[in-house]
Amino acid sequence: MSAGLDNLKHVVVLMMENRAFDHMLGALRAADPRINGLVGNEANPDTTNEPAQVAPLAEFQSQLDPDPDHSFPAVQKQLFFGTPGPPAAPEMQGFVQSYWDQQHNVAHSRKIMYYFAQGKLPVLHGLAQNYALFNGWFASIPGPTVCNRAFAHYGTSFGQVNLDIFYVKDAGESIYERMLAAGHSTKLYYFDPSSSTQEVVNLLKNQPQIFATYQQFLDDCRNGALPDYSFVEPNYSDHPGDDGGELLASDQHPDHDVQAGEVFIASIYNAIRQNPDLWRSTALLITYDEHGGIYDHVPPPACIPDGYHAPLTDTNNMPFAFDRLGVRVPSILVSPWVAKATVVPGPEDPANGRVFEHASIPATITQHFIGNYDNRTPREKAAQTFLDLLTDVMRPDSDCPAFSFD
Amino acid sequence: MPHSPVIHVPKPARSSYQPQRPLSRSTLLQSQVKHFRDLEKDLPLDQQTGIAIDSIITEAQAAEYIRRMTNRFHRPPGGA
Questions:
Q1: Chain A residue whose CA is closest to B66
Q2: Mean pLDDT per segment of 10 residues, for chain A of length 406 residues?
Q3: How far apart, in whole angstroms, are the C-alpha atoms of residue A121 and residue A24?
Q4: Residues of B with Cβ-Cβ distance to A164 under 8 angstroms
């Protein structure tokens, strides 16, 4: 066991919304060829059959409006356009065609290929270049938010591939129930009551004691009261605060401002970073629930099924046995025990590559805090865990950035 | 955090704040409202909000409904 793992007392997971790996991090390949981002000539055909090439022209807001379709049927088009469909390998050629379906506007549909220029996202790019970046972290399902977030809590979505309420089946226990039963502390921090949580039925209704707010998270960090495991949700809506002030959505879901999400990520990092005891004993994972319909060039790989089959009414009659992953998303592991500029290889490296997905979250938390635990899906049992990235060497403050705000 | 290299984080534009953004533009927020409505149906009548979710047409209105419903189940210390 590494010294970093020996010192680990807290794991914090921050799950943002709806951005693909290449869209957010693809530009970093130019500076570090180990990062499986964009070369610059990747393209999708538009509806006039002209190639729409990737371009570093992504803006913080007002570019991906309407919200790109990322329902299960739309994502299948994004993955399999130009192929016979599964079990053929996805070719990632249908993103522009899929976005065109929403407005029938060729010029607008090509914007789904845009990505952020290097340095335009100082927080996400800074963390990726200072800590551990995963080349192969994928959404759990080629579909939307709720079912993907379910994998982070349960290691399964209980057969659902859409935004409907999901119901716990087969006595599945959330990672929070597991932690409490094993005598560990855990919290799910939502931003505020007006933003609340995206996991309402199973968790907020039945386990209200595990919830707290973002303000409580900041207080817990300051007071050294952070639980063993924390899951943090961003602000999902623009709404007035209790004092009448303006609270910007920080989830980065299109068409919310990406810069507001940058501020939020930085505030979570700084809250941990500013407490020296917490900083040396905490690992922070920043990830995104799914790609939001936005282009990524890496075909999602197959995975161990979780034992469910999606209703054909939800999949446009395409059989789906939860045996392949969704589109790749940005994921970064932050800790002073992570070697600077670690790049965890993904499918681009057949010999050493590792594939992560959101079931890796409960799998990792269970492995570290609980140990043997059988009441979970085969999918979660097979999922890669990520705490082996903590090393024996704690980096000094002078090697770990801090964020300052306007 | 003495001696740490500092990365500056720009502030979002004031114009980013759009609480009147139509709810119809976000399937995620629409589904969140529906989820809370599903919870609300099981509450006693005197604990329901009386809000018809079909009347919710902006992001801020959705946030207000979600706030009232969240407080039915979880009231954070010192929270609204």
A1: A194
A2: 96 98 98 98 98 98 95 97 94 98 98 97 98 98 95 93 76 88 97 89 81 97 98 98 94 97 98 98 98 98 94 94 98 98 98 98 98 94 98 97 94
A3: 8
A4: 31
